[in-house]
Amino acid sequence: MSIRLAPATADDVGLILWFIKQLAAYEKAPEQVTATEDLLRQTLFGPRPYAEVILAYASDGAAEKPAGFALFFHNYSTWVGRPGLYLEDLFVCPEFRGRGVGKRLLVQLAQIARERQCGRMEWVVLDWNEPSIQFYLSLGAQQMKEWIIHRVSGRALESLSQL
Predict the structure, then answer these.
(1) Which terminus of the chain, N or C, has fewer Cβ atoms within 10 Å?
(2) 15, containing H or E segment
(3) pTM (2 decimals)?
(4) Residue 56: left (phi > 0), alpha (psi -120 to 50), or beta?
(5) What are the start-end ranges of the E strands in 40-151?
(6) Count of CB atoms within 10 A of residue 71's CB?
(7) Cα(127)–Cα(123) distance, rounded to whole angstroms?
């Protein structure tokens, strides 16, 4: 099987949204997706892009098929004094899992992080997603169990902004 990676363009927003919905279904939360093609076009490819996407395509000699995607953006580490690469979403279609697609995406992200002089690459994984946890550990990732994610969204975000 051959794997091709390509940076997404504005023409790919439909495919990106499809991947996002597939990931949400896998994570047992399809009802939580409120993204639209228009929002993705604006926030990923508008005047101020907030994130980037790499698409993976696979072929077994026949026609190429979308196989997975990675959506990432930069954060910043004050302690390291460098940007970081934050992987927001990584998804590989079930029929392509275990065939190198996820690894190729992560290797590409690591190369981008090195080219951009990032101090580190980070992401979160659901605690029940043992196959992914084991995959990440096998690539040298370390679990940061002492850190707890906090989130403010929806009404709480609105309320906080008006204090």
Answers:
(1) C
(2) helix 13-26
(3) 0.94
(4) beta
(5) 52-59, 65-77, 82-92, 120-122
(6) 21
(7) 13
**Alpha-carbon separation of residue 126 from 74, 86, 152, 155 (angstroms):** 21, 16, 18, 24
Angle among Cα 89, 55, 84 to the nearest 5 degrees reads 50
- pLDDT, tens digit, 9 for 90 and up, residues 85-105: 999 999 999 999 999 999 999
- For strand 82-92 and strand 65-77, is the pairing parallel, antiparallel, or unpaired? antiparallel
Name the residues annotated as catalytic.
Answer: 136
pLDDT (tens digit per residue) in 104-113 = 999 999 999 9
C-alpha distances out from residue 65 to 3, 57, 156, Å: 10, 5, 41
User: How far, in Å, CA of 68 to CA of 72, rounded?
Assistant: 14
